[in-house]
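Private note to self, pasted from the team thread so I don't lose it. Backbone tokens:
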């Protein structure tokens, strides 16, 4: 059973926000996590992040801004056709007002 790296990182960020911390260090890292953090930075949820040693286990240091209320990763591994994607998103996500969804396609 593998770890859910993105979900663990997001929960660490939420817990650090609740404790009032300004920075959090995330380990281990993945390319999906760094791309998701880039999206969060563009939307203004975090100030900045830095990736250290991405070719090994690595770590990411995130500067928090205090704007994250709750953040989760839904990691359902299902085959969904493109035309059914919006209906599945509306069914699965708790609310469709204030959320960001990122679609990740596998290679192959």
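Design output:
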């Amino acid at each position: 059973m593998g770890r859910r790296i993105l979900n663990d990182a997001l929960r660490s960020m939420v817990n650090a926000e609740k404790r009032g911390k300004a920075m959090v260090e995330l380990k281990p890292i993945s390319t999906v996590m760094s791309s998701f953090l880039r999206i969060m930075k563009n939307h203004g949820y975090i100030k900045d992040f830095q990736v250290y040693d991405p070719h090994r286990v690595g770590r990411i240091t995130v500067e928090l801004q205090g704007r994250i209320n709750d953040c989760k990763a839904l990691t359902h591994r299902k085959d969904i056709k493109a035309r059914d994607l919006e209906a599945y998103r509306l069914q699965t996500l708790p609310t469709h007002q204030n959320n960001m969804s990122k679609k990740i396609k596998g290679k192959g």
